[in-house]
């Protein structure tokens, strides 16, 4: 609703400025192609944009009182705000459009649009004294190189109806052109910001859960594929000693062999890819032998039905680049022996 009102007032402002040009003017300074005026500060008729800069967060002190005199004094009243800062320069070639008409036209625009006029003045109203002008308080903020003539400087400071934007507009003449410097700050508090993007933490790998199978599952794998991985047979780190929690899986293998007296199995140990090839190959054989020993000594399975072998790291079922992958590659397989 507010911006719609701005658009309506813009039309009346351009009519108020009432400048007629017989031919296209020669631009004294290059226009910024594609630049759009600030949504709260319309562009004058025949005007173009010669500066458009944006800073995501800045602290700006706006002048809100006449010049008190002296060479570099502090102003009695200022408005200090923080937020997103946009600085623009509007240019109208030639001096046919009077600075007074521009000043009063924009003052009318702000007042009729519901802005609070905090401070405004033109020429002597800005209290220019001692060769030091109001407009040169901060060069490049109010005006880049303003005229020293008191009739060629004007200033308007306003607050938007929603009180979220402060706008200062300075008017001056330079290089045979009328110019406006627009400084607008959208007020906001600075949110905490980490300037250095941390390395994203890798998502934790899903834990590999070794669930012991039922006899039917082992038997089905042997019948269909001639081989089956036995879950949950675990060993001491870097050793061939079987951990106690492997008992359930080994008892399932024992039940399978007892239920199928004709079945003979090759027990194959596998390792991950970490370490030397020869070491892993030897470790895989030792672990297979440990399983065969458990099945014979504790399961009562005839040793003639079992043979131990090791494949080391030669037959991974997944990548060795992750811990979960390596855990899956460290396994025991049963392979059916056909006489």
Describe it for me?
It contains six helices and ten strands; from the N terminus they run αββαββββαβαβαβαβ. The model is unreliable at 1-28 (pLDDT under 50). With 339 residues, it is α+β, with helices and mostly antiparallel strands. The protein is rod-shaped. The strands form two sheets. A six-stranded antiparallel sheet has the order 1-2-6-5-4-3, with helices on one face. Helix 5 (277-297) links the parallel strand 8 and strand 9 (306-312). The protein has two domains: 2-187, no CATH class; 215-336, 60s Ribosomal Protein L30, Chain: A, CATH 3.30.1330. It has helices at 2-17, 99-112, 215-225, 247-259, 277-297, 323-329; strands at residues 48-63, 78-93, 116-122, 154-159, 165-173, 177-187, 227-230, 265-270, 306-312, 331-336. The chain is 24% helix and 26% strand.
């Amino acid at each position: 609703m507010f911006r719609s009102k701005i658009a309506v007032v813009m039309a009346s402002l351009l009519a108020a400025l009432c400048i007629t040009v017989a031919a296209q003017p020669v631009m004294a300074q290059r226009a910024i192609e594609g630049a759009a005026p600030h949504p709260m500060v319309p562009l004058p008729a025949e005007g173009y944009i010669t500066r458009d800069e944006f800073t995501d967060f800045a602290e700006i002190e706006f002048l809100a009182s006449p010049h008190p005199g002296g060479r570099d004094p502090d102003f009695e009243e200022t408005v200090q705000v923080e937020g997103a800062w946009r600085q623009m320069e509007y240019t109208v070639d030639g001096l046919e459009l009077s600075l007074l008409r521009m000043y009063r036209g924009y003052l009318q625009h702000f007042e009729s649009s519901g802005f609070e006029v905090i401070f405004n003045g033109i020429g002597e109203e800005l209290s220019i004294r001692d060769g030091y002008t109001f407009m040169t308080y901060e060069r490049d903020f109010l005006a880049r190189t303003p005229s020293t003539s008191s009739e060629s400087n004007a200033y308007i400071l306003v607050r938007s109806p929603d009180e979220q934007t402060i706008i200062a507009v300075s008017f001056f003449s330079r290089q045979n052109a009328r110019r406006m410097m627009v400084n607008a700050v959208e007020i906001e508090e600075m949110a905490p910001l980490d300037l250095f993007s941390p390395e994203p933490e890798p998502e934790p790998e899903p834990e590999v859960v070794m669930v012991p199978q039922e006899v039917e599952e082992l038997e089905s794998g042997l019948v269909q594929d001639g081989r089956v991985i036995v879950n949950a047979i675990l060993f001491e780190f870097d050793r061939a000693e079987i951990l106690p929690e492997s008992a359930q899986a080994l008892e399932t293998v024992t039940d399978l062999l007892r239920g199928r007296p004709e079945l003979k199995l090759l027990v194959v140990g596998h390792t991950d890819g970490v370490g030397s090839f020869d070491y892993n190959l030897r470790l895989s054989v030792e672990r297979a032998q440990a399983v065969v020993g458990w099945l014979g000594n504790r399961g009562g399975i005839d040793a003639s039905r079992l043979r131990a072998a090791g494949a080391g790291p030669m037959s991974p079922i997944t990548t060795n680049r992750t811990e979960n992958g390596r855990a899956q590659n460290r396994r025991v397989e049963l392979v059916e022996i056909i006489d």
